[in-house]
Amino acid sequence: ACGQNSDEGTPTSPALQTENPMIQQSCYLPSTPDGVPAIGAIPECGTGCFIAAGHGCWGILLGPATGESMAELLMTGAGTEHVNLSPFRPSRFGSFKLVP
Predict the structure, then answer these.
(1) Three-state DSSP state, 16
(2) Are the CB atoms for 32 and 38 separated by under 8 Å?
(3) φ and ψ at 53, to 5 degrees?
(4) Which of 48, 36, 32, 38 is nearest to 91 (CA)?
(5) Cα–Cα distance for residue pair 41/50, rounded to 1 Å
(6) What are the helix and strand counts (H, E) for the chain?
(7) Which residue in 72, 90, 94, 99 has the fewest CB atoms around it within 10 Å?
(8) What are the residues facing 52 on neighbouring strands?
(9) Beta-carbon neighbour count of residue 1 at 10 Å?
């Protein structure tokens, strides 16, 4: 599938004619190492830096609950009464290395 996508994209994108992709994959599902989404603040970024990612194939189903939780977290500093965010805290992976 990756080769077919590259072959079909080459005529429409000059960059694909001269550059080699760093990664080739099809149907990428963003996941965390433990399979549980990362939802919450990222302290290394400073105040106001949050993440809600790593839902894998469940993203479309978890979207409404994640959206409500993030909205409450951003507005009040606490999660919603419907979702306990502690199992999803990004800090369970240790500290984040910020990439410029």
Answers:
(1) helix
(2) yes
(3) -155, 170
(4) 38
(5) 4
(6) 3, 2
(7) 99
(8) 39
(9) 9
- Range list of H helices, 1-100: 2-9, 14-18, 59-76
Nearest to 40 by CA among 91, 96, 95: 91
Q: What is the distance of C-alpha 74 from the center of its chain?
A: 17
In the structure encoding, which two tokens stand for residue 44, read together?
């290394």
What is the identity of the amino acid at 96? F
pLDDT of residue 52 exceeding 90, the answer is: yes
> What's the rounded Cα separation, in Å, for the pair 56 and 98?
23
Computed over every residue of the chain, the mean pLDDT equals 80
Distance CA 48, CA 83 (A): 20
Which of 40, 51, 44, 52 is closest to 77 using CA atoms?
A: 40
Query: What DSSP designation does 44 have?
Result: G
More confident residue, 78 or 4: 78
